[in-house]
Amino acid sequence: MTAETSQTLDRGLRVLKLLADTDHGLTVTELSNKLGVNRTVVYRLLATLEQHALVRRDLGGRARVGLGVLRLGRQVHPLVREAALPALRSLAEDIGATAHLTLVDGAEALAVAVVEPTWTDYHVAYRAGFRHPLERGAAGKAILAARRQPLEEPGYTLTHGELEAGASGAAAPLLGVTGVEGSVGVVMLADAVPERVGPRVMDAAREVAEALR
């Protein structure tokens, strides 16, 4: 800590990070041990965060991230989209297909940025805000592949006809970006994805991940 920082705010943010990293919540005692502060301090931090709906406590007393975090999270999408656009434009122009950045939103994949190529006679219309189950389509399946292989690069995922008849997709997950779970991909009107597309999508995913770090 330095003279310019707030110890209380720092502890509150650390509480949120600890809660975000667990699926089953944490007790006051567990938080106290992880933070290295007494239980009274933790009670005060949780009470303040609860007032802003950033934390909730269940009947058993375990603290979890609150729904107020979702309102903050919605404001992240424009920042993420802006950072990803240069890599998506390059990908769309290079491949001649619609490029997209997709993020996880609950059990769904949400397209937050879409770039269409400028030189093709036709391409797949794909809009920002489009949602689909994570289990369908290359974008969602690439994310699930990264979940299954958290310690290694899972490569790219190819699909055909899962979201739109006659359309094929390729996507690679974003890796190494704290707090962001998503993928970069392309969708095209083709029976099969050309061989060079998969590695090119992986390169674009690395570029986006680097821009977000």
Automatic annotation (TrEMBL):
Gene3D superfamilies in the cross-refs: 3.30.450.40, Winged helix-like DNA-binding domain superfamily/Winged helix DNA-binding domain
Keywords: DNA-binding, Transcription, Transcription regulation
Superkingdom of the source species: Bacteria
Record carries keyword Disulfide bond: no
Gene Ontology BP terms: negative regulation of DNA-templated transcription
Residues covered by the HTH iclR-type domain: 6-67
Residue stretches making up the IclR-ED domain: 68-213
Pfam families named among the record's database cross-references: HTH_IclR (PF09339), IclR_C (PF01614)
GO molecular function: DNA binding; DNA-binding transcription factor activity
SMART domains: HTH_ICLR (SM00346)
Protein name: Helix-turn-helix domain-containing protein
Organism: Streptomyces cupreus
